[in-house]
Every structure is written in structure tokens, then in C-alpha cells.
Structure to design on (325 residues):
């Protein structure tokens, strides 16, 4: 069970109506909005390191904005060659010498674009405070810490460029304050003469015209009405973002996927029918900040994947039930 297979949904929340009364929170919210939009509105190019457990990945990222929208290029510098080129929500992935067309991605967030554009509900679930200043990749940075108000989610600590608000470093910490996942720029250029030779001019769909397709991510379709499955014990503040029917690899019957978010962390719940000859594999697994828990309920397999502690995915999985007709 891997993150690319299971965790592919948008994780944005709608802001609640009404004004925010606390002026201090309003000041923080304005800075958070600057941080959230910086990753989408700033031209930048650099190298960043992603770490969890004993695993280290180094990638080169380039991002530019023009009249056609956002364009991004992400290239792995370790192991097998992998290049991802994105024009707005259209993504093309090169693996080695082959090409993989990836389905459209709406709202998915990756470093440094980790913050949602709508932030008001974060104050209900996290204690948000600006802490120390420092330097990352040669740039002056302000640090913002998101400390959860319960033990069902992780602490997030973010270093943002003091001028643009672009995220330069992000740490995820467990309840003991140990860093379990980190993204950090080691070299970065903000603005100026950014290489644009890889950008396809004109409509972003031109990226995919005539490209061979050697593989696909699991296909998904949004459900017009609820599937009848529900989750009774989500942590406070998690709201349903979408509900999908997704065809998983080597499965004849599509799985139901429900996606929830509190603005920073996401949880996906998958329910699929067990094949008669399939090996049951319940239990807990992890990859950095991502926890996955699988349980068998009769003929169904329930899998919960989230950027949350193990206790949370287990609590969610144990509360999944069918309430349809």
C-alpha cells in the first residue's frame, strides 16, 4: 500500500461564513494567506531534500507563472530518473525512458505548495503561532508552528521566506516533538531569470497530444450521490472533501473512496470488495508521516490512509459502517 496509489485527492476546505473577531488571529491569517498563495504566484527554482526515517530524496523543482497559469517541473536527482511536468491541473510523468500520463489533479498539494488557500478553520484545530526567525537556503525566514489541539494529528512547523512568503522548509513532528518528516530547500532562486525552456506554450492540453501511455494511475469518478458508507469517529474539524469510485490495480470492482481534510492533514477511506482468492492483509503500515491501516469487515476491506498518527487511522477505520439501503 503506497501513497501514490491511495492518497490522490484534493485536500481543500471551504471557509466558514462570518468575520474573524480576534485581531491577532487576523494578522496571522493575513500572513498565512501570503504563505499559501506564494507557492502558486512566485517564480522559483531550486533543489530540496525530502526525508523520513532513514530515507532521503533529493529533487530539483522549477515553477513559473504566466498568462496560461502555473507551470511546474519536478525532477528526482536520486535513483531512477523521474520527471513530472505540470501545466495547471494536467500532469505528465516521465519514468526512465517511458512516459506515464497521469489523471488530472485538482487541488493536490506538494512541497512547497502545502497550505490551502482557505485557512479560517485551521484556528479551530491548531494553536498557530509565529516563533523564531532564521535562515534557510540563504534566505531570511519566519517560522510558523501549527500545534494540534488534540492528540489525533501532528504538529507542523513551517519556515517561510520573509519577503515572498514562499515555504522554504517544513517539518512534521510527533507528540514527543520528534521530526518524522522534513522538506527543505538546500539551494533556491526566487524570481529573476528562471529557465522556461521546458514550458509548453499555449494550451496546457498540448502537453499530452499524441503521447503514448504506458501506465495509468487508478481511474476515478466523482459520485453524484453518497455511496451509503459513513465514518462515525473522525477527529474534530475534518470535513468531507469528495467521494469517489476508484478502480484499483488488479481489481474488477471499483473501490469507494472518501476524502476528508482539516486544512493541513488529509485522510482517505477506501472500501472495496475482497476477491475470493485474495490474500487478506490487515494491519498497520507507515511511510514517514503517512499511516495506513487495513481491516476486514465481512466481504469488505476497509483501508484508511492519512497524514495523521496511527491511533487516528485505526479509530477512523473502526468507525466505518454502511448506512445505505
Amino acid at each position: 500500500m503506497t501513497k501514490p496509489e491511495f492518497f490522490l485527492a484534493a485536500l481543500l476546505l471551504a471557509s466558514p461564513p462570518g468575520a474573524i473577531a480576534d485581531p491577532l488571529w487576523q494578522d496571522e491569517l493575513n500572513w498565512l494567506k501570503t504563505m499559501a498563495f506564494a507557492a502558486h504566484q512566485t517564480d522559483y527554482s531550486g533543489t530540496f531534500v525530502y526525508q523520513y526515517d532513514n530515507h532521503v530524496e533529493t529533487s530539483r523543482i522549477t515553477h513559473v507563472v504566466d498568462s496560461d497559469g502555473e507551470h511546474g517541473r519536478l525532477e528526482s536527482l536520486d535513483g531512477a530518473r523521474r520527471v513530472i511536468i505540470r501545466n495547471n491541473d494536467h500532469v505528465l510523468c516521465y519514468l526512465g525512458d517511458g512516459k506515464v500520463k497521469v489523471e488530472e489533479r485538482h487541488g493536490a498539494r506538494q512541497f512547497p505548495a502545502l497550505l490551502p488557500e482557505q485557512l479560517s478553520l485551521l484556528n479551530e484545530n491548531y494553536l498557530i503561532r509565529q516563533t523564531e526567525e532564521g535562515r534557510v537556503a540563504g534566505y531570511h525566514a519566519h517560522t510558523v508552528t501549527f500545534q494540534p489541539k488534540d492528540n489525533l494529528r501532528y504538529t507542523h512547523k513551517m519556515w517561510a521566506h520573509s519577503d515572498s512568503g514562499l515555504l522554504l522548509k517544513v517539518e512534521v513532528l510527533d507528540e514527543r516533538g520528534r521530526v518524522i518528516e522534513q522538506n527543505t530547500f538546500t539551494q533556491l532562486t526566487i524570481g529573476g531569470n528562471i529557465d522556461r525552456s521546458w514550458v509548453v506554450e499555449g494550451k496546457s492540453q498540448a502537453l499530452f497530444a499524441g503521447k503514448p501511455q504506458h501506465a495509468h494511475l487508478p481511474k476515478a469518478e466523482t459520485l453524484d450521490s453518497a455511496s451509503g458508507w459513513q465514518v462515525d469517529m473522525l477527529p474534530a474539524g475534518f470535513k468531507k472533501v469528495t467521494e469517489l469510485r476508484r478502480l484499483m490495480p488488479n481489481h474488477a470492482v471499483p473501490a469507494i473512496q472518501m476524502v476528508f481534510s482539516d486544512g493541513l492533514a488529509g485522510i482517505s477511506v477506501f472500501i472495496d470488495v475482497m476477491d475470493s482468492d485474495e490474500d487478506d492483509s490487515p494491519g498497520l503500515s507507515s511511510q514517514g508521516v503517512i499511516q495506513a491501516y487495513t481491516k476486514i469487515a465481512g466481504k469488505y476491506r476497509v483501508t484508511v490512509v492519512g497524514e495523521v498518527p496511527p491511533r487516528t487511522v485505526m479509530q477512523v477505520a473502526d468507525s466505518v459502517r454502511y448506512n445505505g439501503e
Notes: The chain has four helices and 20 strands. The two ends are 31 Å apart (CA to CA). Helices lie at 3-6, 23-41, 122-125, 310-318.
